[in-house]
Design a protein that fits this description.
Layout lengths: L8 E7 L5 H9 L4 E6 L7 H20 L4 E6 L5 H19 L3 E6 L5 H13 L3 E4 L10 H8 E2 L2 E2 L22 H16 L5 H10 L16 H19 L3 E3 L7 E3 L1 H10 L17 E4 L2 E5 L9 E4 L1
Parallel strand pairs: 1-2, 1-4, 2-3, 4-5
Antiparallel strand pairs: 3-12, 6-7, 8-9, 10-11
């Protein structure tokens, strides 16, 4: 849906788990033109998981009934992974910013969805002040105090929704202020080489960088005794590996002399900003550059849909 009138488009991001009014009412209130719904069903054939699909279907049904003008874009993502949620939110912003040329109001429903989504959505809004976060407070509840006690208590003892939980999983963080757009693409190039070569040589990294137009060094072997190959290897270490090591994204391999490994911080960067993709999101501009930069810092990856994303427009 492309609006050529010059009118600002009103867009929204929300996550659907087991709430309906929390998602639908704000779309109607803000008179949204296009709503991005993030949801996930691990195994639709499992009756325990099927309820999530039923809630999502009810949200879609009510949106079509109460706000038929709104275009619905479905994002099938693992809502319990923080990095996946942050990547999805940033991708949506990037795609819509390119599609509307920035002529939009993008509302972000912080109340909907799991806590991982809420944290990621709020972080995305801090990255981009153009995004408008909002919360939704309950007015009328489905559970009476008696029903609440019956469901969330064992006898007189409160237990909550979960009786037991799995071991905690640390969320790897990183400092985005030290990463430039080129550094992220270089990190992705390094990861690509490592996935293909068990013991990569410097030339493998250099060729990958050249293929991605990230290598602009032209050695002049006549100015010193060093060969062109030696100069390129030194430049590779100084201009590529050393900055990535300094920011904590890469370390020297203990097993292979010429190999550099991605650290957990580097993996977190790739999970969110990695440049591998499967094709454009509906409405995304395929010519959009990978980064909208703020000086020499990447402020957001604007490439079409990234790793593992599944997107569909619901008509």
């Amino acid at each position: 849906m492309e609006d050529r009138s010059g009118k600002r488009q009103r867009l929204m991001i929300a996550c659907v788990i087991t709430e309906v009014a929390v998602v639908v009412d704000p779309v109607v209130f803000y008179e949204i033109d296009r709503v991005h719904l993030i949801h996930y069903v691990r195994n639709p054939d499992d009756p325990g998981n099927r309820i999530y699909k039923e809630f999502y279907d009810e949200v879609v049904r009510q949106l079509k009934e109460r706000r038929p003008e709104a275009e619905i874009v479905e994002h099938f993502e693992k809502v319990y992974y923080y990095h996946d949620m942050l990547r999805t939110v940033l991708n949506i912003f990037g795609d819509e910013n390119a599609r509307t040329d920035g002529n939009m109001d993008l509302y972000v429903n912080i109340t909907s969805g799991r806590s991982e989504y809420a944290a990621a959505a709020m972080m995305g809004c801090m990255f981009h002040h153009e995004m408008i976060p909002f919360t939704v407070r309950a007015e009328e509840r489905t559970l009476s105090p008696e029903d609440f006690r019956r469901i969330y208590y064992e006898g007189d003892r409160p237990v909550g929704q979960y009786l037991t939980v799995k071991d905690p999983v640390k969320v790897q963080t990183f400092d985005p202020s030290v990463m430039t757009g080129d550094m992220i693409e270089m990190l992705d190039a390094l990861d690509s080489v490592n996935s293909r070569c068990k013991r990569p040589y410097a030339l493998d990294y250099i060729e990958e960088l050249k293929d991605r137009n990230l290598w602009n060094y032209d050695p002049d072997s006549n100015r010193s005794k060093s060969t062109a190959e030696q100069k390129e290897r030194m430049y590779l270490r100084r201009a590529v590996f050393d900055p990535l090591i300094d920011c904590g994204c890469v370390r020297k391999s203990r097993n292979a002399k010429s190999k550099y490994e991605i650290t957990s911080e580097g993996r977190a960067v790739l999970d969110i900003f990695g440049t591998k993709r499967r094709g454009p999101s509906p409405g995304a501009d395929p010519r959009a550059s990978f980064f909208i930069t703020d000086g020499d810092r990447p402020s957001i990856w604007t490439s079409p849909t990234a790793r593992g994303s599944t997107v569909a427009v619901i008509s």
